[in-house]
Amino acid sequence: MVEQGYGRPRGSGSGAFAVTAVLVGSLVTAAAVTGCAAPGDPKPAADPALAVRNAADALARAGTSKASTSMEMASGGTRVTIRGEGGYDFRRRTGRLQVLLPKDPAGASEHRPITELLTPGALYMKNRGAGVPADKWVRVDTTTLDDGNLVTGGATDPAAAAELLRGAREVAYLGEVDLAGVKVSHYRGVADIAHAARAASPQLRGALAAAAKGFAEDMVPFDAYLDAEGRLRKVRHQFSFSNQGRIVAVASTTLLYGFGVPVEVTLPDHRDIYAGKIET
Description:
By secondary structure, the chain is an alpha+beta fold. 20% of the residues lie in helices and 36% in strands.
């Protein structure tokens, strides 16, 4: 695991991470106080960095896939994990995830899954909690977030995760491994967010440009796993940010599988979007 070059958002308690802070809510703070057909075998790329940078294009050619996400957040010796399941359309850059929050520190309460709709420039969330009516959606403009929704929603947008790799630097090929029965090539390096934003597809450019401005350091360590067709099967990014005076380390992992499955995303009517104040 690369252990240097974390990007760190400026300031503490900035608006960019307000949604994540509420999603996790008191989980970190309170706990800190209380304690398809199988493809062929992959071959090493002549240029590892180029192979990783082209992963987003390979996903667009694949069209759609199922997605599983995991976001591990650690602060003050306490660790919580937010998990998501759903599907993503890499041509339309839209997806739908069911995001599950961990139990409260005492383990006494379960949280209703949050439905997230991922679209170019916007994130929609239902069962958002924190004073939002159960039948309403919350809309967040991802181009105004300091992290471009790489962290905020509790799940990294799969397309953004792949587009971030367009800024891959210092990439090393670490060999072939088995990933859920599929042989994949393992690459490790760092991604330059600013470069990725300039090279990103138009739909994701605004969000990554916001992240490039919001993170104090542009370099984000990653591990990426590509199949024989160059498609991204798994990627793990490492971020860190300051929240209420605490440094929160984040490891965001995205798994992609089941390519070609139907993925339908229907945006909520504007009348179903909550316009009131969101509790923080």
